[in-house]
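Figure caption, in words: inputs first, then the predicted bound structure.
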Amino acid sequence: MLPVYLDHAATTPVAPEVLQAMEPFFSRAFGNPSAIYTIGQEAREAVEHAREQIARLVNADADDVYFTSGGTESDNWAIKGVARAWGDRKNHLITTPIEHHAVLEACVALREAGWEITFVPVDSTGLVDPDEVRRAVTPRTGLITIMHANNEVGTIEPIAEIGAIAREAGIPFHTDAVQTVGKIRVDVDALNVDMLSISAHKLYGPKGVGALVVRRGTPLRPLLDGGGQERGRRGGTYNVPGIVGFGAAAERAMRCGAEEMERVRALRDRLVEGIMERVPDVMLTGHPVHRLPNNAHLAFADVEGESLVLSLDAVGIYCSAGAACSSGDTEPSHVLVAMGIEPRLIEGSVRFTLGKDNTQEQIDYTIEQVVKAVQKLRSLRVKG
Ligand SMILES: *Cc1c(COP(=O)(O)O)cnc(C)c1O
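Bound structure (pyridoxal-5'-phosphate present):
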């Protein structure tokens, strides 16, 4: 049996056409895009082409796309960069308790610098109520940051509505769209966002490259001061192969994303139905409708999520208990706690996130193996 990779929210394999696009920029076309001679200019053109590919994917202006080292840097830049731009004129930000750690920890860093943070609550499906955001706004509010879709439970937030509230109040609005770009339609205009974070490795691109899309006029200071790259807003020699791969991944997503996701959605539904029909005491966590098409987050009563993940690993199935970045962490998921999920179900939570190469055969195999593993773990628990 081939390995069954079901952890696409953690990372995705580099697509063959992405790797192919990157290859020359490791070897023949190694020039520095900031140099004026031919191989420099060739690299420069490739970077600018990638910028256009990414802009097209999210309906942004290419001039508004800034390359970064990934989602974490983009999130940190948006949050700390806006705070620095305000100076002491603003000192309050609004976010949610279910953000990725890249956002949460950047907010905590601002708190140490004197900012006050309001965490608007989420309901039991992980959904934010835009009215709660409206109520949290004060004259001191300088930033709203709310993720487009949650990386654990897959809930998609009402970003366009929240963005309209932010715009009306004149408050810069950032969204972490790392989990949505390439999976569902992301349009920076329709979403009313001022800043949007993307990471290439979540959409079949390489690791270590991403972008922050910044609408003109957004108050944002640099995070990385340096050699004037990215129109003076983000220093550092261009990661040319990474950026080229990111562009190719964006192009690929535009070409086959929608069709691919419908196929993935059907497989995801098959997985969820297959497991829920055959395993008693299991709950689908997150929103039943407003959720990523590739996400199945299941909470098994009387099972330890990590044990289930390890049992499945032994039969070639890769999934995760909680977010990948916190594995090995014994703390319960901050997302599930904020959603008010019972501790005994939090403990038994497992996330399956599907991708382009998964097949029906793999999903049927996974259902079989989950049924077996849960039975075994539950019987051991009773005996123990
Ligand atoms: C993966 C992820 C990040 C971090 O992106 P990196 O490129 O790995 O730094 C940030 N936010 C969300 C929602 C993610 O899923």
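Residues 90 and 195 are 18 Å apart (CA to CA).
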